[in-house]
Design brief:
With 237 residues, the chain is an all-beta fold. Helices cover 0% and strands 41% of the residues. It has one domain: Jelly Rolls, CATH 2.60.120.
């Protein structure tokens, strides 16, 4: 399992103050809350794939709210992640239930760097707009992240190292796109992203560039995808 950061929508809960309701001034035994589910039951979480199944099936049902399944080819599991190479495909077909996407989250690890000026795909719906895409590029001496949601696509410089696990979040907050790496804001670009991303006839590929469906993909991620979440609301760290 790759290291994970968490984004959420809505307001955080409030802690109770024992002194405020006359309770004794003691520290009670506390049972820790269970770890939150990676794919919580939330209608705003349109797509969620944890890749926790071992072995991974050839057809992997969405753990989010939309009725859609991923088709896996040459993908292996282990340690709660999908292991990918240059013959792997994770493809989700068109569904009208994945629309108005405002946030993309991906947990990934690249085991090798692409060649200079080349890229690896993390998620891609192929058509812009309506756009759902996230790529990382090697641009010596650094890297870049390119995210697209709705009618906006933006590129930011980023510090990324092969063999390292990262949590990426690209968020449309109505005013523009924000890009986070491990919960740290690295880019904030104003622009017309509010229309939101959507699945199109070409569907969505994970871990590669979508050239128009489940065949002919390229720009593969060589490494691991630990989880993918698509939200139809903006998220915050």
């Amino acid at each position: 399992m790759l290291a994970a950061c968490s984004f959420r929508h809505g307001l955080p809960g409030q802690a109770m103050d024992a002194a405020s309701d006359g309770a004794p001034d003691v520290v009670p035994d506390v049972v820790p809350d269970a770890a939150p589910r990676f794919c919580p039951a939330d209608p705003h979480l349109r797509l969620c794939l944890s890749f926790d199944q071992d072995p991974l099936p050839a057809v992997l049902p969405n753990e989010g709210a939309a009725n859609v399944s991923a088709q896996l080819t040459n993908v292996t599991g282990g340690g709660g992640a999908a292991q990918l190479g240059t013959t792997s495909t994770i493809y989700l077909p068109y569904t009208a239930e994945v629309t108005n996407i405002q946030a993309i989250e991906v947990w990934y690890r690249a085991d090798v760097d692409p060649a200079n000026t080349q890229r690896m795909g993390l998620v891609d719906s192929n058509v812009s707009p309506p756009n759902i895409s996230l790529f990382f590029y090697r641009v010596d001496p650094t890297h870049q992240l390119r995210c697209g949601i709705g009618s906006q696509t933006t590129v930011w410089d980023a510090t990324l190292a092969p063999g390292t696990s990262y949590h990426l979040a690209c968020v449309c907050d109505g005013a523009g796109l924000k890009m986070y790496v491990d919960g740290v804001l690295i880019g904030d670009t104003a622009g017309p992203c509010a229309s939101g991303g959507a699945f199109v006839a070409d569907g969505l590929t994970i871990g590669s560039n979508n050239n128009g469906g489940p065949t002919g993909v390229n720009d593969w991620l060589v490494g691991a995808i630990d989880g993918v979440r698509l939200w139809d609301v903006s998220t915050t760290p």
